[in-house]
Amino acid sequence: MRASQLFFPTLREVPKDAELISHQLLVRGGFVRSVAAGVYSYLPLGWRVHEKISKIVREEVNSFGGLELHMPVLVPRELLDETGRSKVPVLFGLKDKNQREFFLGFTHEEVVTDIVRNSISSWKQMPLYLYQIQTKERDEPRPRGGLIRGREFTMFDGYSFNSNEADLETIYRENYRAYGRIFKRCGLEYLAVEADPGAIGGSENHEFMVLTASGEDTVLRCTHCDYAANAERAEIVANTGAVTGTKQESKVVPTPGAHTVEEVAAFLQVSAEAVIKTIICVADGKPVAGLVRGDRELNLPKFVRVIGAKEVELADAETVRKVTNAPVGFAGPVGLQIPIYVDNELRGGAGYVVGANEADAHRINVQPITDFAVTAWGDIRTAVAGDRCVRCSEGVLEEARGIEVGHIFKLGTKYSKDMSALYQDEQGAKHPIIMGCYGLGVSRTMASAIEAHHDENGICWPITIAPYEVSIIVANGKDEAQRTYSESLYKELKAVGVDVLLDDREERIGVKFKDTDLIGIPVQVVVGKGLNEGVVELSLRRVKGEKETISAETACTTITAVVKREKAALTA
Q1: Residues 118-136: tens digit of each pLDDT
Q2: Most buried in the list 22, 350, 460, 468, measured by CB within 10 Å?
Q3: 241: pLDDT strictly greater than 70
C-alpha cells in the first residue's frame, strides 16, 4: 500500500476523553474514531489489525474442528425468555412496527441452542463445535478505555455440543490450548485464571488475562503453585479454629456520628479487624445478612453461591431500616430476625464490635454463635493479597492487574434444559445436550496489545497483527534515485508476500518518522543518502535506538528474513 493513497488521519494531541494509552494511540494513530460513547468506527488501519487478529482466531479454532456460522444481531425476546435472560441489565431492547420485542445480541447462547435443538436429535451427530466472529451490543453504564469496555465490540463466540462429560472436557481443553496459541501469536503474555461465570452461568470456567498495570480486573496468584484466579472468584482457606480468649458480656455503647468502619474503629480505639460489617442484602426478594470483617468486602457472586439464591443485591436504605430499625451504618447481627451468613474468617473470633441496630450506637464484646445465631458459615468475602493459597500449603496470594481478553465456560445442561434441546442416546432415552461456550474479544485483544506494547512515541505492534509488517520511508521525495529504488523494493517485497507500506508522501522526513512510530510498523526501512553508497537503513520498532545499514542490492532478501524471524519468535 502507498501511504499517499492510505486514509490514516493522525493526531499530535492526546484526545481529552482518552484515559488509557490504547485509547489515546488508537485515536491518534488513525485506527478508530468515536461515534458515540463506547461506539467506534474502525478506519482502514484499525480494520487491518482487527482482521489479522480474526484470521489467527479462525486458524486456531478451525484446527480442532470448529465450524464457522453467522447469527443475527436481532434476537427475539421469546428466546431469552426461555432461559430467563431477557432481564439482563446490559441488554439493548427495541420493538418492530408490529410491536414485537427484540434485543441486540450481547451473546448468542439462546440463538445457537435454538438452531441445534431443531437440527440435532441423536448422539451420533455430536460432538459439534460452532462459532462466529460478530458484533456484540451491551448497554454498559460506564463505557471506558476505548475498545477495552465499549457498548459495541467484536467478539469470537464458540459453542460446543456433546453427549457426555468426557467429550465436553476434551473440547474444553482443546479450546483452552487454542486460546494460548492465539494470544501467543498476537504477542501477548497471558494468564489463565479461575473466574466467576456471571450472567453466562455454568460450572468450570477460566478467564484469560493480559497482565498490565492499566488492567481493570484484579488477579490473585499463588507465590508457590500455579493457582490463579480473578479476585471475585479466588477461594480462601477456611478458618476452623477454636474460640480463643475469655468471653466478656456484650453491651451497647454510644458512637455518635460514627457509622463507617474507619470512624467506628477510631472512636472506640480498635482496629478495623475487630469490627464486623453487617451487610443487609435482598436474596430472591427476601432480606438476608452477610457478615465480613471490617477491613474486608462482601463478595456478591460468592454470596449467591453460598446461600443458593438466583439473585442477590444490596438492600436499599428503606429495607435496611425495616430490617434493623436503624439507619444505614448501624446494622448488627444481634437480635436480627433474618438469615445470617458469616464469613469463615470470623469463625473462632471473639470480642468483635458490631452495629447495635439503633442510631449512633454499636455493640462491643460480640462473639458469633454465643451472641447471635449463624445460619451458615461460608467463603463470602473477596480475597486479597496476602491470603493463604487454598490449593497448596506454602504459598500466599499476590496481586496483579489484568485485562480480560477471553473467557471459556462449561455450561453443562443449563441452556439445553431450559430450551428442551435434547438428544437420543444409544438406548433410545432422551437427555439434555451438554454444552460449553467460549468467548474471545477481538477488539479488546487489539487494545490490550497496545497496552502491552507501546512507548512514548506510539504503538509497537507485534508483527503478526501489525497493520503492515514493513514500512519503506523515502527520505527525500524529490530525489529520483530514492523514489525509483523505493518503488522497486516495494514491488519486490510485495511479490514475496511481505505486507509493506511505502511512505511516498510529500512530507518532511521528520513527519514520516513520527507517523511510522506512532502507528507502530514493526520493520522500518529508510531509503536516504546512503543509497549513493549502495546501502539503506533498517530498524525494528520494538528495539529503540538501534539501526543497521544493509546492502540495497540484497535488501529484499534481508528484510524478508527479518520478517520471518520476527514472526517465528511469536509462534515458537
Answers
A1: 999 999 999 999 999 999 9
A2: 22
A3: no
Report d(CA 15, CA 22) in Å as an integer.
Answer: 12
Nearest alpha carbon to residue 249 among 351, 358, 133, 158: 351
Question: Residues with Cβ < 8 Å from 543, sequence gap 6 or more?
Answer: none
| Terminal C-alpha separation, the chain | 29
Residue whose entry in the numeric block shows the C-alpha cell 455518635: 256
Cis peptide before 9 (omega within 30 of 0): no
- What lies within 8 Å, CB to CB, of 520 at 6+ separation is 29, 453, 454, 458, 459, 460, 461, 466, 467, 541
Tell me how far apart the alpha carbons of residues 541 and 439 are, in angstroms, rounded to a whole number: 31
Residue 439 has pLDDT above 70, yes or no: yes
Structure-block grid coordinates of residue 79:
428466546
pTM assigned to the model:
0.86
Q: Which residues pair with 372 in a beta bridge?
A: 368
The 3-state DSSP class for residue 334 equals coil
Q: Could you tell me which residues come within 8 angstroms of residue 283 by beta carbon, excluding any fewer than 6 positions away?
A: 304, 307, 309, 311, 312
Find the DSSP H helices in 499-541.
509-519
Q: How many other CB atoms are there within 10 angstroms of residue 4's CB atom?
A: 12
Rounded to whole angstroms, the Cα distance separating 179 from 438 reads 10
Beta-carbon contacts of 474 under 8 Å, excluding residues fewer than 6 positions away, are 482, 483, 486, 502, 503, 504, 512, 527
Q: How many residues does the chain have?
A: 572
- What is the C-alpha separation between 244 and 256, in angstroms, rounded? 31
Strand order, beta sheet including 352-355: 251-254, 361-366, 352-355
Contacts of 404 (CB under 8 A, 6+ apart): 207, 208, 209, 217, 441, 444
Contact 501, 486 (CB under 8 A): no
**Residue among 401, 405, 402 at smallest CA distance from 153:** 405
Question: Cell numbers of 349, please?
Answer: 473470633
Digit-coded pLDDT (tens) for 335-346: 999 999 999 999
Q: Cell triple for residue 278? A: 453487617
Asked if 124 contacts 423 with a C-beta cutoff of 8 angstroms, the reply is no
β-pairing, 422-424 vs 470-474, is unpaired
Determine contact, residues 519/562, Cβ cutoff 8 Å: no
Whose cell is 476434551? That residue is: 170
Residue 477's SS3 state is coil
Question: Residues 439, 432: contact at Cβ < 8 Å?
Answer: no
Cell numbers at 361, concatenated: 450506637
Task: With H, G, I as helix, E, B as strand and everything else as coil, classify residue 160.
Answer: strand
Cα→Cα distances 515→28, 226, 352, 388, 507, Å: 10, 42, 62, 49, 11
Provide mean pLDDT across the span 54-78. Answer: 97
Inter-helix orientation angle 555-571/165-185, to 10° = 140
Answer for the pair 443, 143: CB distance below 8 angstroms, yes or no. Answer: no
Q: Which residue has the cell 527520505?
A: 475
The helix/strand/coil state of 68 is: strand
